[in-house]
Design brief:
There is one protein chain. It is flat and about 60 Å long. About 15% of the residues are buried. It folds into 2 domains: about 1-75; about 75-174. It is mainly alpha-helical and about 170 residues long. The protein has helices spanning about 5-35, 45-75, 75-105, 110-120, 125-135, 140-170.
Length: about 170
């Protein structure tokens, strides 16, 4: 059986991204049409929960071609070392965003807080991609950088969940 060339594999990854993007656009357009058809109901919490589930589904779909692309990139040590360093830098944005979101709500702009919240919400998906990146890493350097990135991202997510549980259980001042 003939194996697919690297160029063909990269083309398959690009086609995967294109297919997911097209499918996501169709789903979002259909959701928009529903909101136009039922404007009164679309403002409710159940619709917001449906929107959240749709966004999570779309993010999960994007993980499939991303995993394939990471697997293809792992064959090239120099490229994968740069990618692993990028993962480490990306993981450092999680604790920074958690600190801005937790401590800086009064001192920074609303836009920055929103960006940080979005980054923290995406953290589980980033964590999955980092975990897969660690599994397919071949060189010791790439494994080390990926492990550090995974550790930072995982600990930040754990601290964020602990802060959320603490905030939900804290008594409220009246």
């Amino acid at each position: 059986m003939k194996s697919i060339s690297t160029r063909g594999q990269l083309l398959l990854a690009a086609l995967g991204y294109g297919a997911v993007l097209l499918f996501a656009a169709a789903l979002l357009f259909l959701r928009h049409l529903q909101e136009l058809r039922y404007p009164d109901e679309a403002a409710g919490g159940m619709w917001a929960a449906g929107d959240a589930m749709l966004y999570i589904f779309i993010a999960g779909l994007f993980l499939v071609p991303t995993a394939f692309l990471i697997w293809v990139a792992a064959k090239f040590e120099a490229v994968y070392n740069v990618y692993s360093k990028f993962l480490l830098v990306l993981s450092l944005t999680a604790p920074a965003c958690l600190a801005v979101f937790h401590f800086g709500g009064i001192h920074v702009g609303e836009t920055l807080v929103s960006i940080c919240l979005f980054r923290l919400i995406c953290s589980p998906f980033v964590l999955m991609a980092m975990g897969f990146s660690r599994v397919v890493a071949r060189s010791d350097r790439s494994k080390r950088y990926s492990s550090y990135a995974l550790l930072i991202e995982g600990l930040t997510l754990a601290v964020a969940v602990a802060l959320l549980i603490h905030a939900l259980g804290a008594p409220r001042n009246r």
